[in-house]
Amino acid sequence: MPRQQGSWTSQRELLAAAQRLLPQVLELAGYRAELKVDDGRPFFDALHVSGQSISVWVDAVPLPDGTVARTMVNTTSEHYMIHTSDRLPLDRLGRVLSQGAGEFLACRERSRDGLAPVAADLLGRGAELPADLSLSATDRGRIGELNWLAEQYARPSLEEEQRAQARAELSGLLDRCGLRPTVPVSETEGFAAAAQAAEIRLDYARQHLSAGSLRLVRDLAHPIEHLTPQDAAALRSFREAEAQAAREVRTVLGGRAVSVALPEADAPVSALGESAEQEAAARSARSAVTERQLRDEALWQGGRVRPRPVMIGGGAALTGRDEDMLLVDAVGRWHLDPGAGLVQSADQDRDLRRVGLDPYADSGPKDRVSILATRAWEDRLAARGPLVDGYGQLALDKNGRLVTRIEPLSGGEPLTVEVAGTPVIATGLTPEVVPGVARDDNGRGVRGVESLSEAVRLLGERVPELRERLHEAERSGDGAAAVLRMLDEEAVQGRLGDSKSVQGETVDGIRQTLAATQRWEDARAAAPGRALMGDEVADNRFDPRAAQHWIIAGSGGTGVANAEIILERNPDARVTILGGNAPAALNHQVQYREMTGEGSGYGDRLDIKRARLGAVETVPGPDGKPLFRVPFTDRDGNVTELVADGYVASLGRTNPLPPVTRELADRVREAGSQVEGTLLFDEHQQYLGYGLTFPVDGREHRVDVTGAASWQLPRQVFDQQTVGELNRMGVRQIPSESANAAPGFAPVAHQAAAFANARATDSVRRLPGVPERWVGPRPPAPETAAHVPAKSAPEAVPHAPAKSGAAAPVVAPPVWQTGVPAEPSKGPAATRPVQAPPTGPAPEPPRPDQGIGI
Q1: pTM above 0.70, yes or no
Q2: Which terminus of the chain, N or C, has less C-beta within 10 A?
């Protein structure tokens, strides 16, 4: 049976071939490459003749049609990645690897000199040249292809037919690079201009061309009229094939929109402070105009406004907002974060240029992307269409129509807008957990209960007559304690019976989470402003001087970012981070390296301890002021404790339904039905988010979720197999070595843009699980005694429906929310989706359950 393109088999074949070919590719650039293995993942340790070493990773993954490869650059930790399309024919692999290597080496060289990558390509068709006569990374990639083809052509062992093919391909590439005039010689004026441009390009390319390439260029870089009959015939065939391919594309795409209008990269954010203020003012003005228009429309039409497409939330996902969509966004995350910038460098986020944000506008190649640049860019996108700065909540009106209830930040009366089509939700990272929740029991395969909200939902499903009381308790300030009192009622105990299970979760787990939540609420009340969730620090909803020694529980990215904020805003503060091993991506990020390096300036003000945390307790201090005591076990097994006057919980995130859909979910539960979910992919198997269906009164209401929120699948909708497969796909799609993660700023911007394109072309695919091309077992590493053997990978199993069902094997949390204790801690627990802000001179708190996105 012939191999299917894009199958696991093709991925294995491509990677096996890449392991053979990449050393040859790197050798052309002066590197000697040695194959190594890290946790079953093969990579190359490449040493340059100058003594400098880099790491190169290769994978074969689904990419959009027409994209043969993509390159990720990390000049901070010297890791470089080439993702080839898993549909790539094997005979093109060497050329594609050469292109990728040329690109990342060009970025590395300019970064070493403190230079941003060249924005415009010099090598291209036509007589027109860019203002900057420098080679771009794309140009260097094309030169890499030329050098590879010349190397293949020169191989004595190559059969004559293969030699002719390599020569013909190189000749065709000269056309694409503009290294020969393509204007007929008879058109004297046009030919002269084209010939001059080709000569200029060749002058700049020459220093990077190999000796073999230069010999072939001397033979082939001439007008077709001056080539030998054999070379001229090959070039004519190449040009005819390209023209045919262009006609086929026009035939397929003609007459339909293929993309949405995305911001252009030729409008970089500069003079950042002033520009950010101007963009923010323009955004506020647009919001005021839209709000006034909606109120006028309601006034003239008896309280109703015409249905509109709606997007709730924004942030980086604004690249996926159609300009006719009404945007409801509370100006969250990056508008509130008091940090210096993104945790990635401009080089690490260089592809943001494709969606309109130039990360180099006010940052050096290895410097962090300015947070002012991200704010100005987001505001510019937000103001491109109708906008209300505020909070949105989806609900059903009395006629069963899907509406958005909007609470404007202006303070005006709430607005109600009927939703046209399927609303898009991009409300950002999900709420955090705090120490003590009943985490999944890996030993027994029992699902834990991660929050007060989940405990309320589970109990309401088991004892329906308690639902109203449970929801009232959850909304009160005494939520966890009130629910615990209900559990002790004799009638409730009778309904729960002797069974220890509620929908697969143990009653003991529900009690543990409720008790931990109550202790957390009590601690917050006893030490206002000093017992915080990590997001309160990130959103600047705290007083950094409320404590002088802060414990941060959790050594993941959020915890490290919180530490930096506290240390920068309180020069007298000390911070101790307690948690497991840092996530792999953290070691590749600029922020973490700056904070832990010798030049950080923090000295003994920052201490990071790798440990397993115990339960946090409040104890009275010498002056009667409550302090926080945290026992922990260090790497050597020693048990000790730490006492501090401030505590920040950054222990990972919950997996609920988006809070903006809570009313819809309640209606579904009241009807005795279930919320259904599917994963959203485009026709190229690029992940776009997930879709929810809310069946109510015989009608189905759809909601689509994209951006960071879409990487935390709701536990009550999706089974654990699907959750695990999506997590693994995210890590494969955005490797840790890139210093990014799937829910990060740049990946979300690209994901949302792909979602917009798929909506525009009506090509969104709703699937029950992750496509097999993403799920396939990891290709085996080569067997060699010199390296660590790869771990064997299990064969894939069929997808289960994307709904909650019987208990499934527990999966580890995504790599982007690791750094948490290795085992369940036994202290205070899960945060509620909405918490009152601590006291202190902080700005008015946003509401993390509505309209906030990254």
Answers
A1: yes
A2: N
